[in-house]
UniProtKB/TrEMBL annotation:
Protein name stated in the entry: Peroxidase
InterPro entries, per the entry: Haem_peroxidase, Haem_peroxidase_sf, Peroxidase_pln, Peroxidases_heam-ligand_BS, Secretory_peroxidase
Residues of the Plant heme peroxidase family profile domain: 23-322
Key word Plastid present: no
Family: Belongs to the peroxidase family. Ascorbate peroxidase subfamily.
Organism, as annotated: Stylosanthes scabra
Record carries keyword Hydrolase: no
Reaction it catalyzes: 2 a phenolic donor + H2O2 = 2 a phenolic radical donor + 2 H2O
GO molecular function: lactoperoxidase activity
Cellular localisation: Secreted
Enzyme class: oxidoreductase
Main location: secreted
EC assignment: 1.11.1.7
Cofactor(s) recorded in Swiss-Prot or TrEMBL: heme b; Ca(2+)
Length: 324
């Protein structure tokens, strides 16, 4: 296992060597707003205490933001035909936490801390609060000016994606197959609507569900069919991504996969190839290994399409551009 630990860590590091510059660095707010990260962490902590589902929501939020237009808070913009209006984003939550942090920071350090940085830092803190590793990430992201619903569907993973489809999308973002397996571990938290995995079941004329995807554990499938009854399969009912430890960031996701209890087809697809199955097995057997590799993969994720210096702006409100 020690050799495997070294191999995985080297694989991640060799794929991403980040050159920190003044406009995107670990101490970017040291002079302009030194308490920025503390304020964000405090708000994420208090919000999570009031609502244990917040960490999972913030983690999903950063994925959906960074994969479309890069990590630039384009998902936060409100309006006709913005990213929020796409069906794939209508169930994304955590916006209020980001806005709360933004309001606090605007009082202390006006027009200084970007919404994009708040999203990335809040997701980072959410993982730590839920029991996962605390990761250092650079700041200095600027907020984007473009948010279009038409950009969402081609840039986010659909729960029915095959391995090839996921690899193609991740590669387009500068992320490797190893990153794909590591970042899929985010499904150890959060919830999903029943219609996100409805293609694993078949509904007859009388509305009764039967399992058609035989890769899914039968007892787990029976529980899902019970929770997603005929009247709720396409409604607002949600189930936990991880049926075992849904509010904890741990390696249970990989254990679930090996037990054929991955909620989505895109989860189960990780077992279809020997290389990715081996990674799943390693992370399932060694939580420390998963945590070590999570840090590098999360750093890469939150660096996708980053805007710095004269790109974008520092929004006064995350919901609108400054000239709106």
């Amino acid at each position: 296992m020690e050799n495997r630990r070294v191999i995985l860590s080297i694989a991640v590091s060799s794929l991403f060597v980040f050159s920190f510059v003044d406009s995107f660095s670990l101490d970017f707010y040291a002079a302009s707003c030194p308490s920025a990260e503390f304020i964000i962490r405090d708000i994420v902590t208090s919000s999570s205490s009031n609502d244990p589902s917040i960490p999972g929501k913030l983690l999903r939020l950063v994925f959906h933001d960074c994969f479309v237009e890069g990590c630039d808070a384009s998902l936060m913009l409100i309006g006709n035909n913005t990213e929020q209006t796409d069906p794939g984003n209508r169930s994304v939550g955590g916006y209020s936490v980001i806005e709360s942090a933004k309001r606090a920071l605007e009082l202390l350090c006006p027009e200084t801390v970007s919404c994009a940085d708040i999203i990335a830092l809040a997701a980072r803190d959410a993982v730590g609060i839920a029991g996962g590793p605390m990761v250092q990430i650079p700041t200095g992201r600027r907020d984007g000016m473009v948010s279009l619903a038409s950009n969402v569907r081609p840039n986010i993973v659909d729960t029915s994606f095959t391995m090839d489809e996921m690899v193609k999308l991740f590669t387009s973002k500068g992320l490797s197959v190893l990153d794909l397996v590591i970042l899929s571990g985010a499904h150890t938290m959060g919830v999903a609507h029943c219609n996100a995995f409805r293609d694993r079941f078949q509904q007859d004329a009388e509305g009764r569900l039967t399992l058609v995807d035989k890769t899914l554990d039968s007892s787990y499938a029976a529980e899902l069919m019970k929770q997603c009854s005929t009247s709720t399969m396409a409604s607002t009912i949600t189930v936990n991504n991880d049926p075992e430890t849904p509010m904890v960031f741990d390696n249970q996701y990989y254990r679930n996969l090996l037990a054929h209890k991955g909620l989505f087809q895109s989860d189960s697809a990780l077992l279809n190839e020997n290389s990715t199955r081996t990674m799943v097995e390693d992370f399932a057997n060694d939580q420390e290994l998963f945590f070590e590799n999570w840090g590098q993969a999360f750093l890469k994720l939150t660096s996708v399409g980053v805007k710095t210096e004269d790109e974008g702006e520092i929004r006064r409100s995350c919901a609108s551009t400054n000239n709106a």
